[in-house]
Fold:
Amino acid sequence: ESDPDDNKAVKSWQGKYIAVFGRNTTQWFGLTGNAEQIYLPQKSMQTSAGIVSTHAVCKYKDAFAAVGGVKGGTLQVMIITPGSHQKISTASIDSIVNKYKESELQDLLLETFLFNNHEFVMMHLPNETLVWDGNQNVWFTLKSDIEGDKPYTGRHVIYNHEEGLTIGDKSVGRVGKLDDNVSSQYGELVEFLLYTPFIRVNNGRGVVPLFDLKFDSIFGHVNEFQSILISLTTDGLMYGNETRIEYNDPREYNNKPMVKVVGPIMDAVGFKLRVQSKDPVNLSGFSVEIGYGG
Structure:
């Protein structure tokens, strides 16, 4: 090795190379065909980034997803390829990862799976499970309760020829199946939390009224009524009282949910949307009108 630095993991790549992941660098070795020296270091492929722990790396397409960093740098989530690395974590994801000491991340697990033509990278931290959708380049959080932040209990997604994608449950030692026909976890109710961007709405015009808050969904394709709870914030920290809208009826396919009058905003606003359901949740096209209606 050209830079031995506490090797953490070894992975094969393209059938003729191995990648040795250290804490600060990743070394690549290629097959030689020589029985006396089976592998030779590929110095031109060396990557100036490593991983934080043994299971903090996994295959992602023709590369590796990893949690680590460069020498002297803070932790981040990245894609490592021969000779280069690309950051995929956002500032908010970085802040979550870096609140832990490296000694607390030795059991961190990174895994990837393909579901509905989306390639996901799932990161299991001590108190959070964060997922990156590589197709959409977006992050979201999984949890296993309602009105709380209990870490997601599922881990180790494996394809089964008979069952499809299965997933283990670390809390009670059972195995489940990933199914996009339901949102429940083993029949239990789950909660969805969505946050809109925090945006400035007045452009120096003083108090501005908001009206006609609305959104789209795939209406009618549920077994039970679905309701959404919407609250707003004007400081990005504290959210006010929730407004409940019943937006999905199993017998109604033409719903047009709307809050006609939202209220006056002095400067900026953001919204939180909360749904508790066992059925799939589909929300898109969330919008609100700014200014004076009519």
Remarks:
- The two ends are 72 Å apart (CA to CA).
